[in-house]
Amino acid sequence: MGATFDFSKQTVLVTGASRGIGYGIAEGFAAAGAELIVLAEDDAIHAAADRLAHGASGSVRGIVCDISDRAAVADALSGIGRLDVLVNNAGLERATPLGDADPAIDETFARVLAINVAGTNNVTREMAGRIADGGRIVVTSSIWGKTAVPDFSAYIASKHALIGLTRTWAKELGPRGITVNAVCPGWVRTEASMRSLDVMAAATGADRQALLDEIVGGQAIGGLMEPADIAGLYLFLASDAAANITGQAINADRGEVMV
């Protein structure tokens, strides 16, 4: 990560932290000494918390919760008193092609929005009153929150929506000195992104590796990112160094999308 941050004595909650980008973010905060709470919808979060605790100077606790369930969120987060940093990272990435008549597509569409948009709102509403004045909220959107590709309408709509929520919450919480920003990752090697790559290759008839080469070839800096490559931006936005940055959607995509 290069830069050094100190989050000792700060309580940080990262949702969607059992794998992928969320786990990479959690690793960064654990290494920076945070009192860390990690959340995901299945029991894998407990194993993730155990791994994160190895060598960490702060505590690490795992919570299982389906964030689309408002009552479950209230119950799961009831034990958290004061919070310094909330990272809304939990999300579901699935294809929902418009021309596919399978009724399951409608169910998937609804589920993506329930987790990515309503779920993020559920967590933020539950914790907003407990975030310390001067605290930080960081939301994981996507470069697809500023652009679009075929067949991922629900996911893309949800990521656009998260930028809207970020800007609105920045206005609402600004009087308390709380900053709210979104990170828009590009292509990162995760289970979800590689699944989407497979869907895109199948839909176009392209060779999977050729498609990936084309994607990373469109970046100003080549190569496929790993989760740890973008964790530093989250830590920066959660730090005192970013006290004057709020309501922004910042790309971490090696120059693939320059807007």
Short description:
By secondary structure, the chain is α/β, with parallel strands linked by helices. The protein contains 8 helices and 7 strands. The longest helix has 25 residues, at 103-127.
List keywords for this structure.
259 residues, alpha/beta, Rossmann fold, 8 helices, 43% helix
| Largest sheet properties | 7 strands, parallel
* Topology as a string of helices (H) and strands (E): EHEHEHEHEHEHHHE
Relevant CATH superfamily: NAD(P)-binding Rossmann-like Domain
Q: How far apart are the first and last residues' alpha carbons, in Å?
A: 24 Å
Q: Low-confidence runs (pLDDT<50, min 5 residues)?
A: none
Total number of strands: 7
* Strand portion: 15-25%
Give the total of domains: 1
Percent range of helical residues: 40-55%
Classify the secondary structure makeup into a structural class.
Answer: alpha/beta
Task: List the quaternary state of the chains.
Answer: single chain
What is the CATH topology classification name?
Rossmann fold
How is the largest sheet built, in terms of strand order? Answer: 3-2-1-4-5-6-7
What is the CATH class name?
Answer: Alpha Beta
Global Rg: 18 Å
Shape: globular
The CATH architecture name reads 3-Layer(aba) Sandwich
